[in-house]
Amino acid sequence: MPHGEAIASLIDHTLLRTEYTPADVDRVCAEALEHGFATVCVNPIYVPQIVERLESSPVKAASVVGFTLGAEFTAIKVEQARRLIEAGVEEMDMLLPVGLLRAGDYRAVFEDIAQVVKACHGQGVILKVILETGLLSLEEKIAGCLIAVKAGADYVKTCTGFAIGEATAEDIMLMRRIVGPAVGVKAAGGVRSWEKARLMVSAGASRIGATQGVVIVQQSVHEAGSDPTQS
Amino acid sequence: MPHGEAIASLIDHTLLRTEYTPADVDRVCAEALEHGFATVCVNPIYVPQIVERLESSPVKAASVVGFTLGAEFTAIKVEQARRLIEAGVEEMDMLLPVGLLRAGDYRAVFEDIAQVVKACHGQGVILKVILETGLLSLEEKIAGCLIAVKAGADYVKTCTGFAIGEATAEDIMLMRRIVGPAVGVKAAGGVRSWEKARLMVSAGASRIGATQGVVIVQQSVHEAGSDPTQS
């Protein structure tokens, strides 16, 4: 498999900034179909549009819950998940309540995630839980991973890309070590080049969230050498 | 009325960053009670806490809807509003769907706001509509104001503070000119000093959103001269 396709299949092609229009969404769907990205990830209002554009392709529709602050009522996160699934989403990324994690209220964090997991897994939908690693201490990162796995998350993920901090190899290695081989690790936040994407995969990431997916694939095609999926 | 209290009564004392903990929320409630801010504005998970802390005081509990990206399903925004009101919120700030405004889908923007207005006004709750002015052209700012007023918003507001751009005197004057005297104008985003707050009020703002409310009040007390409510 060429590096281009190998790396593309790991990328969530992501378009979440508030200023994006339906025309931008069409563009990223076309890019995703051309390059074979894993998913297109957009805000809820654009989900019907991507579901239509990606129909009968292997590219999945993805969206977000409790985004970008993670501090919604759990009941709202569950309702967001339900409506996204109804609209055709197959994968979603939720932000856990970072302030409660930092305060050590692990029970509330667990309940928040577990309720959304319940809404997803009954429908075969994959749930990724964002830690917002840039705001957490080492202990909080570890606790966040353990709680997310215990609550049934399919992936743990580094950052929203909207707060301080970005994905680092150190954090990816830590997260992979904690969640083990059966749970996914998604590197997101500041992954804008093939070099960075390859570093993330080498460190243990099984998915990349990026707005620069096309650049990453193009750079990977131009480079000889290691296949990131083999490292 | 001293400048300190006069300006304090115009300030939404705001704590929305994801990393804040219940201890931070207690601190801002104490500050609000001490200085007499208009509201304390926090994320939904902290609303029960502020409602309890602010009980039987003139300081109102406030929160946010469709925040920080504005691109939730309208039905979710309505459900967020309903649950916030149920929890005791008396004012809320919602972000309109910026991408749809930029795309000229005015009908969708109107419907989005009007549905949340409907949830609020039946309960005597004030709704402020954020334009995210830093991302808009002059034409889009004007359209956003007109649509928000037509849909029944109680205030129009400049920025979330989480995207590019901040409140400017030029934008506040524009917004005040469009919405007229009967609708509020809230300056938020980058208002961190008494000098800036006074400039906003002079330009026509009737409310200030700030995390630095205590600093603003302290600076105003130390300064002789103009009363912002008289300018």
Structure description:
The structure is a homodimer of 231-residue chains. With 231 residues, chain A is an alpha/beta fold. Helices cover 46% and strands 16% of the residues of chain A. Chain A contains ten helices and eight strands. Chain A has an eight-stranded parallel β-barrel, surrounded by seven helices. In chain A, helix 7 links the parallel strand 5 and strand 6. In chain A, helix 4 packs parallel to helix 6 (106-121), helix 7 (138-151) packs across helix 8 and helix 8 (169-179) packs parallel to helix 9. Chain A is globular and about 45 Å long. Chain A starts with a helix and ends in a 10-residue tail after the last helix. The mean pLDDT of chain A is 95. Chain A binds chain B through residues 16-24, 43-46, 67-73, 75-76, 79-80, 83, 95, 97-100, 102-103, 105, 132, 135, 162-163, and chain B through 16-24, 43-46, 67-73, 75-76, 79-80, 83, 95, 97-100, 102-103, 105, 132, 135, 162-163.
Give a brief rundown of this model:
The structure is a homodimer of 231-residue chains. Chain A is of the alpha/beta class and 231 residues long. Chain A contains 10 helices and 8 strands.
